[in-house]
Every structure is written in C-alpha cells, then in structure tokens.
Amino acid sequence: MAGAVTGAVAGGAAVAAAAVVAFGGSSSAASAAHLSVTAGYIPRPLLTDEAAAYVTVTNSGGTAAELTSASSPLATYVTLHTSTGTTMRQVTALTVPPHGRLSLGLGADHLMLERLTHKPAVGETVPLTLHFAHAAPATVTVTVPVRPTTYQPGG
Ligand SMILES: [Cu+2]
C-alpha cells in the first residue's frame, strides 16, 4: 500500500493506520474494538451519597478500548474506580482488552455513582451512559436494575 496512497491520505485515515501499526506492524491490520455492554446492576445503596454500578463490557475486536467516563440521571456525576484489596481509588480509564472483557463487580473495578438524586428502590431501573475511546460504538446507554443491597449475581 506504500506509495500508491501518497497525497490521498486524509488526516483521520493516517491516524488510524498509525494506531494499527503500533500494535505489531503486521500488514494484516487488527480489527477495531467493537463493544457490547451486558449484565448490569446496581446494588441498592443504603444512603444517597453514592452507589456502585456494575456492567460487563465485551470487546469482539482485535484492539483494546478504554472506558473513559460515564453518566446517569441517578447521579450528579459518575467516577471510575478500581479496587485493590479493601481500598478503592479513582482512575481516569478502565481498559477493555481485545477479544476479552471488562467485568465490573463487587471487589473489582466499578462505576461509582456520586451524590445520588434520590435513593433508588429495588426493582427500579436506571440508565447508564458509558463513553469509550478507541472503540465502536463510542457511547453505549444501558438500563440496569437496582438489586437488593446484598445481591450477588449467580449466587
Ligand atoms: Cu468505588
């Protein structure tokens, strides 16, 4: 492909080509990250300060994507948290590996809904909008149920 496209490469195409090369330099380009979001829920919070939210993001593409931010009408703002042992800290992004998944859950990475607009009831459904980098679609909105505070998926 070298030479033939000289002068015809638009800015966006040049950036995409450079990103693919960075993943290994093979001439067979890795497929772009393609995401789906499933299996979400929110354990019912005891207060209105904050609530954790869990989803699973599956990447069927050959390049990594990043969850960079989220929002919800239930929260004033949403942060991304990672857990190490019993402590959690805020991070700027969570990685969705190629041909893999990002599983948010109790004791693991999670979304933190901060300053809730109200205390949600069990069975209420809450929209979550997730924003991704290096992926299609770049924005995914899912509706997740509020579960009992002690709920654990799959027992
Ligand atoms: Cu947290």
From TrEMBL:
<protein>
    <submittedName>
        <fullName>Copper chaperone PCu(A)C</fullName>
    </submittedName>
</protein>
<dbReference type="InterPro" id="IPR058248">
    <property type="entry name" value="Lxx211020-like"/>
</dbReference>
<dbReference type="InterPro" id="IPR036182">
    <property type="entry name" value="PCuAC_sf"/>
</dbReference>
<feature type="signal peptide">
    <location>
        <begin position="1"/>
        <end position="32"/>
    </location>
</feature>
<keyword id="KW-0732">Signal</keyword>
<dbReference type="InterPro" id="IPR007410">
    <property type="entry name" value="LpqE-like"/>
</dbReference>
<dbReference type="Pfam" id="PF04314">
    <property type="entry name" value="PCuAC"/>
</dbReference>
